């Protein structure tokens, strides 16, 4: 990505949008964010001249984007499941692939059911579930205090009641029971080249990889789930593009019922799950 020319006070919105980098769509987003203008306002005010402070803000955002910093972190928000979420470098950026997990959970959660989101991060999954299913009781856990603060803001913004708890997987839970457990845990294999590419370079490493074979967090979630699931309760987990077979194997080894995987919009088996073992 080529560097932009210098952005200085006296430049107009139109001239800034003609910069060679970042991409035009990203220039619009960043400029609108810096100036607190909508896309339509950027067009109607195209001859507006930037002040010194505005030019510095825009130049900083453009430079950071050219260096690879994710748009979501630069503007502090990302849309997920039709909702706007605050995001910070303390949490993963919500991705469209994860919407499959939300859809599956909504379809399988019984009326007035209780659901637990493990490793909630920004709270995107928990809040999307609670927003779509106002009858549900939603709980969410994370080990990161900073992530829980972000999740708390997002739940409040969308007026969704989410019981948030700091916990290392099931460690802080006691006698709670749920009709459903969902999780998007760290599943990238330690040393995978993707960790040093694209947006992943800027996201919290412990939320991306288990620093092992990519399955250790999934093993913990599967092995502990029966103690916290009601009879016929579902466990649904997102995983890597090549992990569906291994995750189904773990579920079957744990005697889960109706074990299966579901494909995302790209045809990749992205979520696997099953029902609580009858003999648990």
UniProtKB/TrEMBL annotation:
Record carries keyword Methyltransferase: yes
Descriptive protein name: Release factor glutamine methyltransferase
UniProt GO molecular function: methyltransferase activity
Originating organism: Actimicrobium antarcticum
Catalytic activity: L-glutaminyl-[peptide chain release factor] + S-adenosyl-L-methionine = N(5)-methyl-L-glutaminyl-[peptide chain release factor] + S-adenosyl-L-homocysteine + H(+)
Family of this protein: Belongs to the protein N5-glutamine methyltransferase family. PrmC subfamily.
Signal peptide: none
EC number in record: 2.1.1.297
GO biological process, one term: methylation
Binding of S-adenosyl-L-methionine, residues: 119-123, 142, 169, 184
Keyword Cytoplasm in annotation: no
